[in-house]
Amino acid sequence: MRIGYFGGTFDPPHRAHLAVAVAAAQAFKLQRVLLAPTGRQPLKSAAPVADYADRLAMVKLLCAAASGAGVALGSPFLAAAPAATLEASDLDAPHADGSPNFTVDALEALTSENPGAELFCIAGADSLLSLRQWKKPERLLETAEWIAVSRPEFALDELSVLQLTPAQRARIHLLADVEDDTSATDVRERLRVGVSPGGRITPEVMLYISRMRLYHPDR
To answer: Does the predicted TM-score (pTM) go above 0.85?
Structure first.
C-alpha cells in the first residue's frame, strides 16, 4: 500500500489542493491520499480564519466530490475520477492543550496505523526548503518519502540548503506538472469583499461556506 499524506491549513480547501492530490497519486501510484487540516501550524504566527471543525468538514466535502463519478478540474475541476482514494484525515487535529501540531507526529501515527505501508508526504517545494526548522527533520526523512510540489522554474540545486545526504536526497521527488496558482488567501479575499471565487472551489465547499457564513467581514 502506497499512502500519500497531504497536510496543510486548508483555509479553505480549493481546486489547487485537489489538483496536487490527484497529480501526486497518479505520478507516484498512490492508493490513498489523506488530506489533513493542521490544528495549529508551528511555523505560522497567525491562526487560521476558519475553525478546525469547519476546515475538516470542507476537506471531507472536497474528497467526497473527487471520489464520486468524477470532477472537472479543467472546467474547473478534474474531468476524470482520481485513481487513488482521497480521504479527509483528522490525524493533525488540534491538541487539547493548544500546543503546535508537528508533521513528524502525524507521520508516526500514520506509520503505526498502517504497518508496512510506503508513506509519501506531499508538501510545497518552497515549504520544504525550511525542513531544517521542522521538528525532527532527520526522522521526517526516514519515516516518509517526500513529494515536493514545485513551481516550473524550481531547480534541484535549491535543495542543497538542506544539506542532505545522498540517501536523503533520493527520498525527495519533484512534482512539477501542477499548474494552478489558486491560493486560499485569494479565495478568502474574494469572499470577504463579496466576489464569487468562481471555479476556484467546488460547489459543495462553496455551499458550506455560504451556510456557515465563513470568511464574511462580519465574522
So the answer is: yes
